[in-house]
């Protein structure tokens, strides 16, 4: 079985002059011994033996020609409160411009947590999440979260730029109104409305309303990043969304690049015998097939899991779960099969022993699974820097190497 190593940029965390020396995430990355790695791209289209299109070709072309790019990041609890994706978004917006807030929620998913990807203040809603807890009777949309108002709901958004708004959701008896100062706008679900800039924008609902999200786009061109993170989410559960309104929402949002930032729950569920390696491969393949059935030209990328350890014993040994390597292998192989890009976050964030470094710095929660903000900021920064490089520099790959990589049996099972 042949092995290959991904290129590693060891000299600096600053790519293409895009990063600022005083960015906090750079200092966090150095303390954690993070290393920026290049994104691995696979071929998507051939003309004979010549590669016509790589994993991120469409995204590079659109950004170059139009100055716009929409990225939707599908993830689990690591990004549910907009950690990782907040720094990721900030870096990309600094580099390419701000295309708008993107899809945000009517309220938080729970009574705790940040409001960076929801209304600044809300009342009258009951939250439902597709991957855990009580379930909504209505089909979910692309966000995987639904807020139900049974009589009256209210959401206040702050610092909205001039552009457009669209409310995703459903409800035959639902009536919605958008207020800004003395002006009012009656809304229908899933329709696009032009809005002026406002320091304070209020969405009011009456009747029974199921709100999947509110999409804000700027008049100016740039990058838009949607955070689609739900606790307990994973490839084994995403098929539930495809039985819902996800096609409606893909048509409305029209993201150019879908990034899957998953793997932690898959690693644990393999360890707990919740499903087998073959079942996980089936779940990943089904999701990528569903994505291609919606739009076969849309770019996609899988981000591998971070370090995931066996529960600490009395000797406090930080031992990486062996199932993590199975998850990595399946992710890489299916990414190659469907022409998606792959980013090795496990090794970029230090590989084996990275959880131990986070813990000793005090940057790991007591569950020994979830990193704290500083470590997540560092992950968002290295992922953004890797993608900036990939969007600005056309990949130069040896075609013979590609012919080896696309033979699934020759892809790496484990890298030391």
Structure summary, number of beta strands? 20
Which structural class is indicated by helix and strand composition? alpha+beta
Question: Can you tell me the CATH class of the largest domain?
Answer: Alpha Beta
The rounded distance between the terminal residues' Cα atoms is 14 Å
Question: Major beta sheet, specifics?
Answer: 6 strands, antiparallel
Q: Write down the Rg.
A: 21 Å
Helix content: 25-40%
pLDDT < 50 stretches: 1-19, 404-416
Shape: globular
- Please name the CATH architecture of the largest domain: 3-Layer(aba) Sandwich
How many DSSP helices? 13
Q: Overall pLDDT, averaged? A: 88
Fraction in beta strands = 25-35%
CATH-defined superfamily of the largest domain: SGNH hydrolase
CATH topology of the largest domain: Rossmann fold
Overall domain count: 2
């Amino acid at each position: 079985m042949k092995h290959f190593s991904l290129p590693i940029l060891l000299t600096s965390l600053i790519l293409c002059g895009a990063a600022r020396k005083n960015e906090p995430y750079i200092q966090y990355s150095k303390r954690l011994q993070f290393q920026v790695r290049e994104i691995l791209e696979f071929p998507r289209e051939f003309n004979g033996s010549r590669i016509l299109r790589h994993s991120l070709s469409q995204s590079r072309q659109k950004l170059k020609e139009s100055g716009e790019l929409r990225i939707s990041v599908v993830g689990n609890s690591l990004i549910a409160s907009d950690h990782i994706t907040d720094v990721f978004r900030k870096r990309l917006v600094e580099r390419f411009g701000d295309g708008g807030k993107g899809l945000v929620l009517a309220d938080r998913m729970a009574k705790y947590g940040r409001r960076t990807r929801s209304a600044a203040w809300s009342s009258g809603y009951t939250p439902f999440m597709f991957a855990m807890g009580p379930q909504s009777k209505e089909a979910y949309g692309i966000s995987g979260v639904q807020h139900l108002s049974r009589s009256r709901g209210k959401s206040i958004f702050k610092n909205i730029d001039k552009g457009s708004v669209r409310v995703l959701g459903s409800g035959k008896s639902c009536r919605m109104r958008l207020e800004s100062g003395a002006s009012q706008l009656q809304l229908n679900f899933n329709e696009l409305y032009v809005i002026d800039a406002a320091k304070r924008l209020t969405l009011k609902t009456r009747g029974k309303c199921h709100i999947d999200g509110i999409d804000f786009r700027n008049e100016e061109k740039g990058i838009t990043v949607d955070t689609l993170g739900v606790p307990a989410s994973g490839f084994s559960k995403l098929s539930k969304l495809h039985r819902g309104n996800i096609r409606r929402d893909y048509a409305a949002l029209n993201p150019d690049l879908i990034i899957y930032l998953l793997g932690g729950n898959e690693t644990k569920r393999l360890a707990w015998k919740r499903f087998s390696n073959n079942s996980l491969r089936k779940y990943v393949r089904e999701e990528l097939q569903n994505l291609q059935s919606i739009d076969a030209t849309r770019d996609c990328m899988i981000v591998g899991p971070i370090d995931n350890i066996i529960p600490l014993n009395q000797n406090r040994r930080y031992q990486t779960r062996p199932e993590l390597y199975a998850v990595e292998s399946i992710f890489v192989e299916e990414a190659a099969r469907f022409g998606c890009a792959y980013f090795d976050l496990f090794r970029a964030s230090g590989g084996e022993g990275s959880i131990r470094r986070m813990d000793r710095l005090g940057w790991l929660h007591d569950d020994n699974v979830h990193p704290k903000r500083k470590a997540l900021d560092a992950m968002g920064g290295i992922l953004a820097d890797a993608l900036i490089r990939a969007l600005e520099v056309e990949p130069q790959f040896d075609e013979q190497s590609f012919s080896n990589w696309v033979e699934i049996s020759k892809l790496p099972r484990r890298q030391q």
